Amino acid sequence: MSEPAKPFHIRLLADPGLPTRRVNSIQEGFTEEARKLLDGEVTVSCATRMLRIRPDATLDIDAVREMEADHAEADAVIMLTEIPRHTKGHPLISEIFPEHNVAIVSCPTLGAWATKSRIQKVFTGSLLRLLPPGSGPDPQKYDQRWSQWEPTERGEGLGLFAHTLTGGPRTVLGMALGNDPLRTVPKLSSALAAGAATGAFGIFYSSIWQMADALSPTRLMLVGLAAVVTMIIWLIIRDGLWDRPKNRSLATVVTLYNGSTAITLLACILMLYLLLVAVIFLVGLVIIDAEYLATIIGGEASLLNYLNIAWFSAGMGVFAGAIGSSFDSGVDLRRLTHGQRERQREYTESA
């Protein structure tokens, strides 16, 4: 009596954070899709690992194989890394190594709004190209319009490259999302406290009411913009968040790092600013008497006047927060940007 066929086992590995969350979100759907395509029993297991890289920012396949020594039963390994891979002048979405049965997918190159179906198609297309020719359906059915498969520079396998025009911006936005701006805002609690303390003066000083009423909407918007930009520049300079390429070959990747850092900080400071506006607006409604406000500004007081006061006061608060702000922890600072986390990988490998 013949033994039953061994299930085809797929191992999914992902960096901590967003890559792990994305893998977990598609595991069930990807498993069902793989069973249909391979027409047999398929098992899929997931694990979170910090994938190592060489100093030249290429993934160390030897280290990958060592890491997978405990999972030799896997017939195919697909890795989702937060590293923004870039080669041949294009972002590298996925790269397959048939001799190792390994596919490496770069999470940031999928963009900030990568849907489950998009991620699953990239995983499926990568998996099918790891199979022997003719053992599965045509993998081109799962290709995306905004990318194409080509041989890599090293000639060891195939790479899925993003479109020239859209690939770069999509990668930067994907990197910014990977920085978790929503989780970074609480790390600026000291800046929020300084901004709230200064912004509160706008509630109690009638001269600020008059100035907020006298400024045009355009000038008020410029005040807010100047406050946000000032705080971003201050954080970048003070905390060393701007990376410089060690050589020309890394210039493009470092530009992606810096772009994602700027966008992440912009999102964080905008959320901080809007939070201050909301708090000052609500407190102003409670404290500032409408009749007294009307007397000061020489006209009827409306909710727009309270909003103008809150916006202008929040701008003053953000300026003050920029002067005295920093992150609440050195560890939080090191984990903010992709560039910082990449250096952490290098230090871990060389230790």
Explain what you see:
The protein has 351 residues and is of the alpha/beta class. It folds into two domains: 8-170, Collagenase (Catalytic Domain), CATH 3.40.390; 181-350, no CATH class. The protein has 14 helices and eight strands. Helix 1 (18-38) links the parallel strand 1 and strand 2 (42-48). Helix 9 packs across helix 10 (251-287). The model is unreliable at 347-351 (pLDDT under 50).
Tell me the distance between the termini: 53 Å
Overall tally of structural domains: 2
Q: What is the global morphology?
A: elongated
Helix/sheet category: alpha/beta
Which parts are unreliable, with pLDDT below 50 for 5 consecutive residues or more? 347-351
Major sheet size, sense and barrel closure: 8 strands, mixed
Note the beta-strand portion. Answer: 5-15%
Fraction of residues in H or I helices: 55-70%
Radius of gyration: 26 Å
Question: What is the N-to-C order of secondary-structure elements (H for helix, E for strand)?
Answer: EHEHEEEEHEEHHHHHHHHHHH
In DSSP terms (H or I, runs of 4 or more residues), the helix count works out at 14
Mean pLDDT: 79
- Total strand segments: 8
Layout of SSEs?
Layout: E1 8-14, H1 18-38, E2 42-48, H2 61-67, E3 76-81, E4 86-87, E5 90-97, E6 102-106, H3 116-130, E7 147-151, E8 158-162, H4 164-178, H5 181-184, H6 189-199, H7 201-204, H8 206-214, H9 217-239, H10 251-287, H11 290-297, H12 303-324, H13 330-334, H14 338-350
Parallel strand pairs: 1-2, 1-3, 3-6
Antiparallel strand pairs: 4-5, 5-6, 5-8, 7-8
